[in-house]
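for the writeup, i need someone to sanity check this before i put it in the appendix. the sequnce is what the collaborator sent (i think, or maybe the updated version? ugh). structure was predicted straight from it, no edits. if anything looks off just tell me and ill rerun, i have time this weekend
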Amino acid sequence: MKNGTTVICFANNKGGSGKSTTCSNVGYGLSLMGKKVLLLDADMQANLSLAFLSEEQVLEISEGDRNLYYAIRDEKDLSSYRVATGYEGLDLIPASPLMSSLEYDLFPKKDREHVLDNCLKSLKHSGEYDYILMDAPPTLGGWAMNLLIASDYLVIPVEASPWGLFGLANMFDFYQKACERNSHLSLMGIVVTKVDIRKNYYKQTMETLQELQDVHVFDTCIRMDSNIEWSQDNSKPVMAYKKSSRSASEYMNLTEEVEKIASGKKQH
């Protein structure tokens, strides 16, 4: 297998799709498999940061200058912006509410769509991490383009609800534009989240997704589970909060699917 760091972006322009939950649990799952993982919270809502750190810690970091916003604004090497999550092999670069102004800050920069890629360069080439997982904001602007340009793979979480597929065509268009700028980018697949198998929404969502050509849909779906909310309330991935829960098992299965696809690409 070729050495190197695989960068995966979890993105959907629709909010509430389960991006942060999926990114945090897949990251934790990969660390359980013995992988070194860096999580990058690229969303001003800081949900990925809150999945591992207390509200007090996240607030303290966001009020300081050791967060992703200042790193990107000042075009700094991201190596010194990492914090430990408390889990072996799993580090985090936290977000800040100030990231709401990143589009404005990026606009005058030269080569503005490659700022994140440049800031990540030393970490990607150091081989310190097997994976860098990034949680994107629910927007399709210059900052989201930065994330896709810095990525090897895109994973799109989709909520199994009447509005879950709304805007997916826009997401695909945006992905195609990113591919024109980043020839290494691939759509790893769509993961269906917040599933209630008793409702028709789930069947309709799956039927629509299966009609899409050349789009992989993960075998694992993530069903509704109150343990997910409880784990978030306790600032833990659900696999750490309640290992025996259904959602913990589902996220571990999803992690294994992700790792299998990424490993296949590394071997080429």
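The CA atoms of residues 27 and 37 lie 6 Å apart. The chain has twelve helices and seven strands.
thx in advance!!
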